[in-house]
Amino acid sequence: PAAAAVAAASATTAQLVEPGNLYPSVPSSKPVEWVKIGAVALGAVAGYYFFNNTDPGRAVVAAALSMMSFVKDQLSHIHIHEAERGLLETICLLFTSIVCVPLVVKGVPGGNAVLGYLLGGAIVGPYALGLISDVNNIKHLAEIGVVLLLFNIGLELSLDRLQSMAKFVFGMGTAQVVFTLLGVAGVAMAVAGLPGPGAIILGGSLAMSSTAVAIQVLEERGEMGSRHGRAIFSVLLLQDLAVVVLLMLIPLLAPSPDGSSGGFARIAQALALAAVKAVAAIVGIIAGGRILVRPLYKKISEFANAEIFAATTLLMVLGTSFLTQLAGLSLALGAFLAGLLIAETEYALQVESDIAPYKGLLMGLFFMSVGMEISVQLFLQKWKEVLAAIVVLIVGKVAVMAAVGPLFGLPRLASLRSGLLLAPGGEFAFVAFGEAVSRGVLPANVCNLLYVVVALSMALTPYLAELGSRLGAVLESSDLKTLQPQEEEMKELKDHVIIAGYGRVGQIIAQMLSEQLIPFVALDVSSARVSVGKKKDVPVYFGDAGSYSVMHLVGAERAACAIIALDTPGANYRAVYTMSKHFPHVKTYVRAHDITNAVNLERAGATAVVPETLEPSLQLAAAVLREMEFNTEEVSSIVDEFRRKHLADLQLLSASSGTSLGYGFEKQKKEGGPAGAGSGSVMSSGEGTPILTPAPA
Length: 697
Fold this sequence. Notes:
- The chain has 697 residues and is mostly helical.
- 68% of the residues lie in helices and 5% in strands.
- It has helices spanning 2-16, 34-53, 55-76, 82-107, 113-124, 135-155, 159-164, 166-192, 196-207, 211-220, 227-253, 264-301, 306-326, 331-343, 348-371, 376-381, 383-404, 412-422, 428-438, 444-459, 461-475, 480-483, 487-490, 504-515, 527-535, 548-553, 569-582, 595-604, 614-627, 632-657; strands at 497-500, 520-524, 540-542, 561-564, 587-592, 608-611, 666-667, 680-684, 690-694.
- A 6-stranded parallel sheet has the order 3-2-1-4-5-6, sandwiched between helices. The chain has a 3-stranded antiparallel sheet with strand order 7-8-9, with helices on one face.
- Helix 5 (113-124) packs across helix 15 (348-371).
- The longest helix has 38 residues, at 264-301.
- The protein is globular and about 85 Å long.
């Protein structure tokens, strides 16, 4: 059984690291089948004509509406207690999700789980079967899913990395919100005739995007660490802060009994107060969290109780979210801050594992609550207005990002792809429109139509992401000049990692760096590999890592380190020599093909050399030992002992060859004798930590 498990795991790994798959640990999302989509669209047009312009079609529609009314009437006569109603609604939601999600994923071209949840919500919502009567209660619970999603993102970041994204967050994010607000407000005033206050609230609401849907799609496609993925995340963070401003503007812009709205001085004073409260809350949470989080988790972990540990995590998330809401900020922002604080502790991995089941279920509930806002009847009545509004919204927001992105160092293609995922409306629009109607800022009939526009635009997000990928494939042609690094794109890079070689090893390293949002640049002399990388918006370029001019273009003088994993020993040697000669302050880590090649690489100036055959051989040997009924502790001990002996052999070789070969360890001479003499030898890492290794037998 163990051997079968190892074989299955090996097969899975081989499948995931195919050259065409840029993200080895994340399966690629299902490609969109455009021919099927075209067929479905034609079928929809034909169906619309049949059901609206023919007598048999109108009869079918009337029969369906009559059946729905009959079902609603029968359900309304069933008298159940409130507790039983809640249980029945839960069962209904679960049943709908397990039916709709697989059907959409398997049956709809380009369909994914998000579309399945949206469809399920539309079916059971108040505008269809009406099985869920109180949508607001569902929304309150579903919002916890968004909270946990932002908490999980915070766990994968750190305050230092967030600080490095400040230009995108506060610069590009602010520009996107402001310019979109002005554009939508102008169109609303010119076309719909809305007054200024209503147009401003409408523009600000539609400037927001869906954090939950956009991030879910990025994670499904493995693009969270790409350039457009980081840009999207930065803009979404700023939008979470802008929500506070917009919610404060609604009552200030509401008409008073005499018909006038708040003056400029009153609005400015309220916004200044909100900014002070927001800054104080964020600084207070970060400062207090850094003092309390680690000791709290240390004390809780001593109880060795998984349930108490998980409860502590939920308390941290919900408590911090509540504090930010008291300060006028969003729940999701508080959860994100909690994730950032826990990410700096050693408990982050366990915490992430604990919240995964809650996050998945509640995110599905959130998407279903959005689907409940879709009114099929209203769409059929005003489909022309709805489609026109969706087109204007998407085209306008894409145009804003295409113009704003390059001003902050984002390449044009990445700006377009960012705009496509930020173009749909967001869940905040439902809250803002409801508040605006109650305050008399926006008319109810306009907001009812916009509910459908926003919900349907959110449903288009997966298709817009795929369109961005196809657009990248078209714009990034196979012309080598377009694949080469451009100085304008690289001038902002600092403390990044350079990956020379984008084969299997390079792709795995790139995936690990992407997951941690660590900036990197990859080089390869295979235009096919580079083109595949460009389709995923990964920063990989065509270029020879042994050329000084190419390394200068990718900012080698400002890099944190370089990883050399090229296909041939000669190419590795040239790249290491170039780095040690022109950029000696940059540490270089190299994959060696064999011991002889490793010695030459050390002499050329490599900081650390890892023989490519050692670790895979040890992993295979460990699988064989486990099959031979050695227990886990014995296997670990045998493998570690062999590794230490191998390192000792490398140390003796380094003593005779004058190098410091072996995983970056530097040879140290024992007092009173040469390195390797006696019963053991001592090596220290670059950090000065001594490592005892026995001499070979």
